Every structure is written in structure tokens, then in C-alpha cells.
Task: inverse folding
């Protein structure tokens, strides 16, 4: 089988374009912006859009940072507009603009962080001096997230800028950015600084618990942090503040390498309406199709009830002296830090308190009830005569009742709480798609196979009604996601390579599965000749894709063996239709199958045969791997091929 | 908005309420339309303001406004503003269907029903659209579907295409069905009903639909009515199964687009009626909409009027008479789009625009060309290559090959007809239990995708195939029809 490959393997971050030998895309080079402004127009448009950013509105911030991402060639203009905007607007409008700066820097990073770094120190400090106390604490929270805000978990705007701002905010003793810890002794540590950092750490932990409810370590941390906060609020000595700060930072650092637990489930997220800075931007190259939730985290200014201190088991009203309990807490904290994974159930707050504010299901019902009443009030009958009677009623339903419109694609949403949430989800989806599209540039896409009966029937787009669905216009389509997953996996496989053994560059080597020779190419970075799309297994080089197909084939075969065994063991699959019979692909099932196959000496078991075939140069394992079972009936039997 | 180079010729149109701007494009031209002010929609899909929308591949469409709007565009081949449109009738249809949907949902959820409503049916709308050639059936389907998904109620109605000369989401020759979640864009006749899923990230789910498709293989329904009827019944069963799983999804109903041959045509009308009956049974149709055809309307009233609602709906004056050559070109566009994605060069001066709500780069696809052995793929044809209708056979004569018999094809035989043929690769049978396999199973398997035989190397027993993606087709079963495609 000769696989010709169009489009290079993945270079995710490169803005270069795949040459498609079959068709040159006629349009001038993407990333295709929605419009094509000159710098002046862009400056005008962007400032105009910026002017709308008066409150902390997530859709606006997202929209603006999306534009910034699309037009990163105008990064200097964006930076100038933003700086001018922050300097110009009244103090109550400054924070949202800073959130925008925060969002762009973290999500787009390059080249924006560079541009912003030029003015962020004076701008931040100047603003900090002007705003009220509440805004200040928000800015402090944001500032802390900047410590590890860059894609590499480094300071978002560089060490120097971070230290300068922190000194300006908290004074000399405060700066933390020496990775070895921080300067001890010099200067005062304010209570507010410690509280801010405490709050920040607490939030981080709560997020970790949300992403992974079984993270008992973080749950333990949360309990202790709550108690610490109470103590600090009550007042502690300078030395203790220092200790707490120390501990907090080590805690944050310990957590930093894995900011988001990897496959965070598409959580039932009710996204907040406002922006909040996120500690670290989880970069995961190559991007998983189900990207980790972007900004669905609880905000500080959300109405969500923080765990009330009174719920805390030990600290409240206990007779312990503050002094000893701090030491206790700190040592516990330390223990938790060092013994990663020790469950500390005692301090864990009720999980429900941490969970995100879900929209009450009633809201959805209510909106559909209202709609029903309005629709049923329309006087229309399904007859030839009646439908031709003039009646402008529909406009109300298509436009007026749906006042909020997505500017990207024109889809409308009702102007209700429920509708607003749907629209936010929808904008999130655009945001993710855009980012994904930018990252996919040069990878080359292809048409997916259609789904089979089983998948089509069970495509659970019944989530369309908004239950636990993540994006507005695009129901969490398991199949589409799966298709994307397959494509990504394929691209990853193709990106694998094996270094050609020295001196064998000219020797033709073929894949044992498809028997096509490998094409060698010179890899500039490694200065080596390599075979692309290749893996080395048991001293033989295979096409990575062929090998994966073959391995998959084994799994599939096992699954069908399982179905086989079942129907032979007296569980006749009823004639309910062929669709029902396939066993769902689950890891458990496969291992089950493995066990039963190896235990029961079923004559049908082809396990051994299949295994051998993987190595066998004669067979077309990949074909069998696609799930076409052995054919018996004449109508489907492949023709004999006397080769 | 101006870019370097030649000045762009754009024109603004101010549309009065309830009028539409119609345009037709010549081959090789494209059009960019931007909504400046007001609201406008293309066949029920609303346009976002200030975004250039591209149209191409001889697209013939209309931009309708309920309340007036200003649009700006480059120059198409034919353009005019029409004041008479059937939109208000279609809108009323939509309202009537919405009433059926909300009643169905109320019933499914067991919500209380007021007394005056108790008499009403709780059946969701399941409509069959019939009409002669060039009557705008597909457009009616699209408007009704788009209005339903725009209602903001989370409806995902099923759209079923039985018009094999059009192909829907698959290629021409296929019958298919897909749930629709967001408005279907119109930009090219190559994807009249939105596009099937690709590996590219797309913003609108209508550009990544997941249809289930069966291969009929020919443009005309009269060529093998038995096979078509069987496929229709299979689709009906799949939909039934889907409704069992997704109970509330049933409330959104379904809409069936049909070929014009269902409405009228030369020869015996038995086949026609048989196919309509098959649709009515399979999809449990409760409303037949006849687009502008008096005789057919009466016919349907007589046949079904007692059991279900038959409604005659007006035909749009904007429909364009399409000739055979045009349909041939559209088939080419469709297959090209299936393999390479939607590629429409924007008109001069517009350097970037969105196509059906997507950025252009996301719609470029890379198929894969592969050389396989003859034995790697089992290829069949359903029925004989040329087949007279049963009624034309001498009395008492039997066929050598029945209409639904799968005949294996040997690519090594000269005259196999495989070169440039469009093959449908069938999904592997879900049932691996040999005892449940049966002879005609091949007729009941849905399509995984399409491949084109681009070269036959008989001496070496190899052939080159163009496949939509890198997935292997070795060991699969493929069925050839009467469609061919060459780039």
C-alpha cells in the first residue's frame, strides 16, 4: 500500500502553510481574518471596540483578545491602543482593561507579552495608585498569576518587570521572584499581601479539586488554607507571615508543573459572565481536541459562596492559641506538601461549596414554557389556505425574542439569563475553534468517514437542550470530537520518525506491514537522516500508522471475539437489529476479552493468529484492523487474488 | 477595507421589508455579500453584519429580509430584487410546525395540558416535501430546518435527503439523514445542505454534520426503485432507533427532501407512488407539502388526505430552470468538495471572507492517493449495469440478474467500468456473528465514504484510489454506481 502524504507532518506553532500539491489554495495566505484592514483602519476599529469595554464582561474581553490573536501582526497597535485606553479611562474602567491585557498576554503570549512588557510596570503601578481598595486586591490577585503566567510557567512579562511591580505594590520585602525562594528579612510583609497570596493559592487548589474531585491532596490543602486565612486575619507576627508566605510559595511552585490535571472532563461548566485572570496558561503541545476549559473558573467577584469559615471544623472557636495553631497548621501544610497524596479528609470543605454555580434546570424549563405559550398563541393552521394568509408573526420569534446575536456567525440567543449563558458558551466555542484553527495551520485536514449505524443512532446530541453541554451552537458531538481525535492521532503518528542507521541511507527499507519503502528525509534540527512516520519495534522499522492500525486491529479483533464468545455462551443477541450487537469499546471490556479468550479454548479464537500476523509480512493486517470481519457469505467474500 | 491594486467595484442595495435580492453566478465566478444594516437571511440562515459572505460554484440564491436591510456586494452575473416571495407562507408553515413541536415536547415531558388543548395532536412535524423539477423543494426544506434551529429551543430536527441526483452531504447517488443543530449555510450548490464532518475545526456544526448515508448509486430513482425503496426503509429504521434513544429529540421532527421524480415523470406512476408510500411509512410522515403542483396536490389529497395533512405551498418565483449540463457540473463540484473541501476563490478585491460562516483555510482538505492490490477491496455492482424495467420484459421472462443482486466486479476484466468510477466504501457489518449474516446484507450497510479509482494497472493487478482521508480501505467492501468523476 503506497501512502502518499499531502501536507507536512505537524509543525503546530509554525505559521507556515502546507503546500497541497493537488490544489493550491487560491486565496491569499490565511490566517484568514474576517476583514482586511490597513493599520489605520485597524487602529480605529480596535480603539472603538475597546471603548465598549466598560465593565468586566467576558464576551467583550474574549472578542477583543480574539481579534488581537487574529491580528498579531498589528501587535504594536493593539498594545498602543490598550495602553492609551487604560491611561485615559476613569479608574472604574481600568480593571476590565487590565483583564484584557492579562488575557491577551496569557493566551496569545507571543508577541504580545513582549509588547506589553515595555509599559506594564509603570502602567500597573500608576493604576494601582489610583484605584480603590477592592480593585487593588483584584489587581494583586492578577499580579500573582503573572508570576507563572507564561507558557513555560515563567514570569509573564519577565523577572525584572514582575519584581518591579511587586516591589511597587508590596514594598521591598515582598518580591518573590527569585526562584530560590525570596530575600529573607529585608523589609516588611504586609498582612494584605499574605492574605492575597493565600486567597490565590486557595483558589488554585479549589480549581484543582473541581477539575479532579478525587484530588484529596488539594482538598486537604484547602481546609488548611481556610484555617490559615482565619488566623492571619486575626493577626499574626511578622515572622509568621514570613513563614506562611514561604510555605505558600512552595505550595504554588509544587503545583505549578501540572497546572491543570490532564484530561479534565468537559465539566458541567457554567461560565461566569466576567473575566478572571487564570494562574497559568496550560500549554499542551499538540493541543488536545478537547481543550482544557479556558476561563470557566469561578471568579472572585462571582456571587458564589465561598466556604464560610464557620463550617471549618477545628479553628472556629477553639481555645488554642493562635501561635501554636499556626505552627501546627504550617507543619500539616508542609506534610501535605511533602507527602503528596496523603488524604486529609478532615480539613476538606464540603465539595458542593466549591462546585461551580450551575444554572438551575428550571430556567431552561421556564424559557421553553414561555416559548410554548407564545407559539401556541399564534393563530395558524396547517392548511393550504391558512398558511397563505398574511401574518408577520414569525419575525418576533426569529428576531425580537432573540435579542443577543453572535457577531461572528449571526446565531441569535434569547436575552434571558438562560440565553446569555448559552451565548457565552457559544462565544467560548468560537474562541476555542479559532485558537485550534491557528494551531492547526499547516497540518492539513481531511474529510472524515461517515459514522456507522450504531454511532449515528447513539450520537447523544440530546444534550442539545443545554444540559451539560459546553458550546452553544455545537452540541458536544462525541463523534466529531472522535473524528478530530483520530485525525490528530494520525498526524502525531506521522510526525514520529526513526533515525536512519548511519551508512544505510541508500538501502531501501520497507515497512513489514504495507511493504512500501520508507522515504528518508534530512531533519535540519537533528542533522540526521530520518524515516518519517516510522517506529522501531522489536528491531524492525514499521510505518507508525501501519503499526498503530495493526495494534488497533488486535483490539478490535478482541472485541469481536468477545461478542462471539458471548453469543456462543447462550446469550443470544435478539433480532433487535444488527445495530445493538457491537460491544462498546472500553478498556475494561478488552481486558475482559483478553482473559476470556485466553481462558476458554474457543476454536474460533484467532488471537494467536492475529498476533502472529502483526509481525507477518504477508498479511494486510491493517485491513482486518478496520473491523471488517471474516467474510463467509458469497456475496461479501473478497475475490481470490492469484498474485 | 480597500486593499492595494484595482479599485473594487461594489454596489449597495437597499432592500424593502419582505423583499429579496436574487442572484445567479456563472461558472468560475464568485460573489461576496456584506450586510451593512438591518437583518437579512439566506434561505433561513441569518447573516452576521459586516462579514463578507462568499458564494460560488454557480450558486443561485436569494438574500431575503423581513424588515429591510442594506447589503453591499461585488457584481454577480444576474441580479434583481423580487418583491413577491413565498416567505410569509413558509414562515406560517414554520409556526404551525413549532406548535406541533412544543405540543410534542409538552407531551413527552408530561407537562400539564390546558383543556382547550386536549384535542390537539401531540405528534411532532414529520414532513415530506414533494414537487416537480425546479420548484425549490430543497430550499423549502432548508428554510424550515433553519427556522427550527433558530427558534432558540435547542431543536435538532432531522433532515433527510432522498434526492440522489443531489447527494446532500455525501456525494450524488446517496440517500442520507442527519440531525441539524445550527443553521445550514448556503454558499455553493456543492454542499446544499451543509457539509459533512472533517478533521478541521469548524465553528458551525452545520459544517460538520454527521449523516448516515446509504448508496443508491444513480441519479434517477426510476433506475432501481426496488433498491431505493429498501434504502428508504432502512433509513426509517435507523431513525426509529435513534428516536428510541433520544426521546426528547423526537419533538423536533423531521423533514424529507425528495427527488422531482417522486412528483411527476414519464412512464408508469406505480414506482412513484410506491416510493412516496415507502417514505410515508418509513418516516411516519404526518404532513405532505406539495410545492406548487396542483395535480400532484390533488393526487396526494386522494391518496393520503384522510390519514395525514396534505398542504399545497406556493413556489418561489426565484427558482431557476436548471439544465442537464448544470446538474452534471454540480456533481463535479460536489465530489471535488467532498475530497478537497470547499474552495471558492473570492472576487477581486476581497482578500478574505467567510464561507458559510467558516474561515476559508479550514475548508481546504487533503485527500490521500493510495495504490492498492485488486484483492484488497471487494467491489460489487447492485443489479445489472443496464437494466430494463421489469414491466418491459417479455411476459414470463425472468431476469438473469435481479435488481437487488450484488454482482462482483473483477477489476482485471477489461470493461469493468471502474476507471474514474465513484465507489462507495461500505461500513463494516456491525454483526460479526456469522449465523446472522445474510446474502443481501450488502444492500443494508451504510456508507463509510467514497473513493475514486484514478488508475488501473491490470498487468500488476493494482489500482490507484483517491480516498478522502488516510484511513485504510483494505479488506472493505465497495459498491460502484453510475457516477464517474475526473479532476
Result:
Amino acid at each position: 500500500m503506497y501512502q502518499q502524504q499531502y501536507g507536512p507532518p505537524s509543525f503546530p506553532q509554525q505559521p507556515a502553510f502546507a503546500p497541497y500539491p493537488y490544489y493550491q489554495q487560491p486565496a491569499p495566505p490565511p490566517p484568514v481574518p474576517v476583514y482586511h484592514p490597513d493599520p489605520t483602519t485597524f487602529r480605529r476599529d480596535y480603539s472603538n471596540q475597546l471603548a465598549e469595554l466598560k465593565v468586566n464582561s467576558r464576551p467583550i474581553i474574549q472578542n477583543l483578545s480574539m481579534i488581537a490573536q487574529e491580528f498579531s501582526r498589528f501587535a504594536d497597535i493593539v498594545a498602543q491602543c490598550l495602553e492609551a485606553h487604560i491611561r485615559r479611562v476613569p479608574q472604574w474602567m481600568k480593571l476590565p482593561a487590565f483583564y484584557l491585557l492579562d488575557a491577551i498576554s496569557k493566551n496569545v503570549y507571543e508577541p504580545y507579552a513582549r509588547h506589553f512588557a515595555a509599559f506594564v510596570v509603570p502602567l500597573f503601578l500608576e493604576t494601582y495608585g489610583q484605584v480603590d481598595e477592592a480593585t487593588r486586591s483584584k489587581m494583586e490577585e492578577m499580579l500573582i498569576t503573572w508570576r507563572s503566567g507564561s507558557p513555560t510557567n515563567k514570569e509573564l512579562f519577565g523577572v525584572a518587570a514582575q519584581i518591579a511591580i511587586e516591589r511597587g505594590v508590596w514594598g521591598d520585602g515582598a518580591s518573590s521572584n527569585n526562584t530560590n525562594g525570596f530575600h529573607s528579612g529585608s523589609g516588611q510583609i504586609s498582612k494584605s499581601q499574605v492574605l492575597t497570596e493565600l486567597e490565590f493559592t486557595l483558589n488554585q487548589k479549589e480549581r484543582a479539586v473541581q477539575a479532579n474531585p478525587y484530588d484529596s491532596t488539594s482538598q486537604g490543602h484547602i481546609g488548611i488554607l481556610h484555617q490559615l486565612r482565619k488566623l492571619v486575619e486575626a493577626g499574626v507576627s511578622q515572622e509568621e507571615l514570613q513563614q506562611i508566605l514561604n510555605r505558600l510559595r512552595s505550595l504554588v511552585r509544587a503545583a505549578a508543573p501540572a497546572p491543570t490535571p490532564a484530561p479534565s472532563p468537559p465539566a458541567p461548566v457554567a461560565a461566569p459572565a466576567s473575566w478572571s485572570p487564570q494562574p497559568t496558561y496550560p500549554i499542551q503541545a499538540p493541543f488536545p481536541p478537547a481543550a482544557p476549559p479556558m476561563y470557566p473558573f469561578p471568579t472572585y467577584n462571582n456571587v458564589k459562596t465561598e466556604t464560610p469559615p464557620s463550617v471549618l471544623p477545628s479553628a472556629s472557636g477553639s481555645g488554642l492559641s493562635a501561635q501554636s495553631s499556626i505552627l501546627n497548621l504550617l507543619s500539616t501544610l508542609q506534610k501535605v506538601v511533602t507527602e503528596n497524596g496523603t488524604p486529609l479528609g478532615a480539613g476538606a470543605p464540603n465539595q458542593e461549596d466549591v462546585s461551580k454555580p450551575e444554572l438551575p434546570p428550571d430556567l431552561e424549563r421556564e424559557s421553553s414554557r414561555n416559548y410554548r405559550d407564545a407559539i401556541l398563541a399564534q393563530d395558524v393552521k396547517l392548511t393550504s389556505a391558512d398558511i397563505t394568509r398574511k401574518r408577520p408573526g414569525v419575525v418576533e420569534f426569529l428576531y425580537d425574542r432573540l435579542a443577543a446575536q453572535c457577531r461572528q456567525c449571526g446565531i441569535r440567543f434569547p436575552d434571558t439569563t438562560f440565553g446569555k449563558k448559552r451565548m457565552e458558551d457559544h462565544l467560548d466555542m468560537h474562541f476555542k475553534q479559532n485558537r485550534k484553527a491557528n494551531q492547526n495551520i499547516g497540518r492539513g485536514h481531511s474529510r472524515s468517514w461517515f459514522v456507522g449505524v450504531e454511532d449515528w443512532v447513539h450520537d447523544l446530541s440530546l444534550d442539545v437542550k443545554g444540559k451539560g453541554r459546553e458550546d452553544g451552537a455545537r452540541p458536544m458531538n462525541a463523534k466529531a470530537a472522535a473524528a478530530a481525535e483520530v485525525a490528530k492521532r494520525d498526524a502525531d503518528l506521522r510526525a514520529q520518525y526513526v533515525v536512519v542507521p548511519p551508512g544505510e541511507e541508500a538501502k531501501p527499507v520497507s515497512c513489514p506491514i504495507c511493504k512500501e519503502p520508507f522515504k528518508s528525509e534530512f531533519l535540519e534540527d537533528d542533522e540526521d537522516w530520518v524515516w518519517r512516520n516510522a517506529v522501531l519495534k522489536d528491531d524492525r522499522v514499521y510505518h507508525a500508522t501501519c503499526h498503530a492500525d495493526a495494534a488497533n486491529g488486535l483490539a478490535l479483533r478482541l472485541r469481536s471475539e468477545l461478542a462471539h464468545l458471548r453469543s456462543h455462551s447462550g446469550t443470544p443477541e435478539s433480532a433487535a437489529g444488527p445495530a445493538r450487537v457491537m460491544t462498546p469499546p472500553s478498556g475494561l471490556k478488552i481486558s475482559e476479552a483478553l482473559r476470556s479468550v485466553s481462558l476458554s479454548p474457543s476454536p474460533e479464537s484467532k488471537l494467536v493468529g492475529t498476533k502472529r500476523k502483526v509481525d507477518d509480512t504477508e498479511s494486510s493486517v491493517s485491513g482486518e484492523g478496520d473491523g471488517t470481519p471474516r467474510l463467509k457469505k458469497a456475496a461479501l467474500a473478497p475475490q481470490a487474488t492469484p498474485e | 477595507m480597500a486593499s492595494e491594486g484595482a479599485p473594487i467595484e461594489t454596489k449597495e442595495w437597499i432592500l424593502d421589508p419582505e423583499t429579496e435580492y436574487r442572484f445567479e453566478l456563472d461558472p468560475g465566478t464568485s460573489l461576496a455579500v456584506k450586510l451593512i444594516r438591518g437583518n437579512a437571511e439566506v434561505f433561513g440562515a441569518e447573516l452576521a453584519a459586516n462579514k463578507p459572505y462568499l458564494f460560488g460554484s454557480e450558486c443561485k440564491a436569494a438574500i431575503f429580509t423581513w424588515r429591510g436591510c442594506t447589503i453591499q456586494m461585488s457584481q454577480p452575473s444576474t441580479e434583481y430584487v423580487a418583491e413577491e416571495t413565498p416567505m410569509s407562507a413558509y414562515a406560517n408553515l414554520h409556526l404551525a410546525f413549532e406548535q406541533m413541536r412544543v405540543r410534542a415536547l409538552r407531551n413527552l415531558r408530561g407537562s400539564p395540558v390546558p383543556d382547550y388543548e386536549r384535542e390537539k395532536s401531540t405528534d411532532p412535524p414529520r414532513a415530506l416535501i414533494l414537487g416537480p423539477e425546479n420548484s425549490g423543494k430543497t430550499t423549502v426544506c432548508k428554510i424550515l430546518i433553519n427556522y427550527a434551529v433558530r427558534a432558540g429551543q435547542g431543536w435538532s430536527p432531522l433532515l433527510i435527503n432522498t434526492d440522489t441526483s443531489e447527494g446532500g452531504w455525501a456525494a450524488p447517488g446517496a440517500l442520507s439523514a442527519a440531525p441539524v443543530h445550527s443553521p445550514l449555510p448556503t454558499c455553493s450548490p456543492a454542499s446544499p445542505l451543509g457539509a459533512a464532518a472533517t478533521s478541521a475545526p469548524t465553528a458551525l456544526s452545520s459544517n460538520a454534520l454527521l449523516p448516515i448515508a446509504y448508496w443508491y448509486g444513480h441519479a434517477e430513482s426510476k433506475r432501481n426503485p426496488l433498491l431505493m425503496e429498501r434504502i428508504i426503509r432502512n433509513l426509517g429504521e435507523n431513525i426509529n432507533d435513534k428516536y428510541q434513544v433520544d426521546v426528547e429529540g423526537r419533538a423536533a421532527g423531521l423533514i424529507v427532501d425528495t427527488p422531482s421524480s417522486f412528483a411527476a415523470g414519464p412512464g408508469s406512476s406505480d414506482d412513484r407512488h410506491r416510493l412516496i408510500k415507502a417514505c410515508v411509512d418509513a418516516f411516519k410522515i404526518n404532513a405532505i407539502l406539495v410545492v406548487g403542483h396542483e395535480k400532484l396536490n390533488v393526487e396526494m389529497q386522494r391518496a393520503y388526505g384522510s390519514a395525514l395533512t396534505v398542504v399545497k405551498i406556493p413556489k418561489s418565483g426565484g427558482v431557476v430552470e436548471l439544465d442537464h449540463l448544470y446538474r452534471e457540473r454540480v456533481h463535479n463540484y460536489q465530489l471535488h468538495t467532498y475530497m478537497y473541501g470547499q474552495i471558492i476563490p473570492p472576487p477581486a478585491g476581497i482578500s478574505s471572507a467567510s464561507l458559510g460562516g467558516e474561515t476559508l483555510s479550514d475548508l481546504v482538505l487533503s485527500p490521500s492517493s493510495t495504490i492498492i492490490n485488486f484483492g484488497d477491496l471487494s467491489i460489487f455492482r447492485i443489479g445489472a449495469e443496464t437494466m430494463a424495467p421489469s414491466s418491459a420484459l417479455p411476459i414470463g421472462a425472468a431476469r438473469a440478474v435481479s435488481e437487488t443482486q450484488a454482482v462482483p466486479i473483477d477489476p482485471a476484466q477489461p470493461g469493468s467500468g471502474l476507471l474514474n468510477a465513484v465507489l462507495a466504501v461500505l461500513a463494516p457489518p456491525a454483526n460479526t456473528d456469522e449465523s446472522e449474516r445474510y446474502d443481501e446484507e450488502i444492500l443494508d450497510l451504510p456508507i463509510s465514504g467514497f473513493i475514486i479509482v484514478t488508475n488501473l494497472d491490470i498487468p500488476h493487478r493494482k489500482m490507484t484510489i483517491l480516498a478522502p482521508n488516510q484511513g485504510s480501505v483494505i479488506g472493505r467492501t465497495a459498491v460502484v454506481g453510475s457516477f464517474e468523476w475526473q479532476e
